[in-house]
Amino acid sequence: MASSILFQPIGLIHTPFAEPIGMPIQPSGAVGVKGTVEVFETYEKGLKDLDGFSHIILLYHFHCYHEYSLEVKPYLDNTSHGLFATRAPKRPNPIGLSIVQLDLVEGNILHISNVDVVDGTPLLDIKPYVPDFDYWENARCGWLEKKSKNVTSQKSDLRL
Amino acid sequence: MASSILFQPIGLIHTPFAEPIGMPIQPSGAVGVKGTVEVFETYEKGLKDLDGFSHIILLYHFHCYHEYSLEVKPYLDNTSHGLFATRAPKRPNPIGLSIVQLDLVEGNILHISNVDVVDGTPLLDIKPYVPDFDYWENARCGWLEKKSKNVTSQKSDLRL
Predict the structure, then answer these.
(1) Quick check: pTM over 0.90?
(2) Which residue from A minimizes the CA distance to B50?
(3) Which among A119, A159, B125, B143 is most buried, taking Cβ atoms within 10 Å?
(4) For residue B100, which residues of chain A lie inside 8 Å, CB to CB?
(5) CATH code, residues B11-152
(6) Domain residue limits, chain A
(7) What is the ipTM score, two decimals?
């Protein structure tokens, strides 16, 4: 069995959401919501040329959430599903993933739009979003098939 | 400054690639390559309903890679770029992200296609891939704009 892995935040995500309650549950439910990513200065050199990308993938630590259940009733459904078939934040390894719009890079600060994370969230990684790598046409979406569009009206609470 | 975060693998990814040398560098460069995800039995219940999704997001530990540079010359270019503007595996927090095709779920084993990771890679998380959450049309791709399609002919070595 593989051993533990230790990560260190490389920055912090700043958003208008002081707590998870009432927060949008996906970037597509947070269109227009502005925030910033503060990349710690040690890592600033790694941001070179990021400004050529309109969208970036943020990986971060769901730091407000502890414990988890392997079956959850997600925000967008009344039926319970396996945790890994949902995007619920309470997970064995609570790593969040959001693809946000990159508006401007100013030194070590990234100005972003469509932010669905809590203020002060520890940043783990930034990757450029590349549809040729990250988009698969006609993907089948199981229980979310007819429900994923409701993401615009659904906000989070502390349930998940 | 935020403190360290400890993660524990929830499974292992099995692939035909014993080492990074000669491996495809993205799922889109690995179309048809088969592998399996062994989710440790403790977590099997969390896989319920995952079989409704044709594609899944795997987050994993780039365990073959240590150290990193903040500027790298990626496989797909002859110019160096900021690390965070690339998908290079050597990163401050070496978390890999691949969106692969889910062919079949058998108990705690996921049969997958389009695999671009090394055999024995520790799995950190599985999320359902949902274009309504994860796809942004007309995304601008900076230095990768004309180069991302070359991913089908490019293989990895130990450089990055």
Answers:
(1) yes
(2) A85
(3) B125
(4) none
(5) 2.40.30.70
(6) 11-152
(7) 0.93
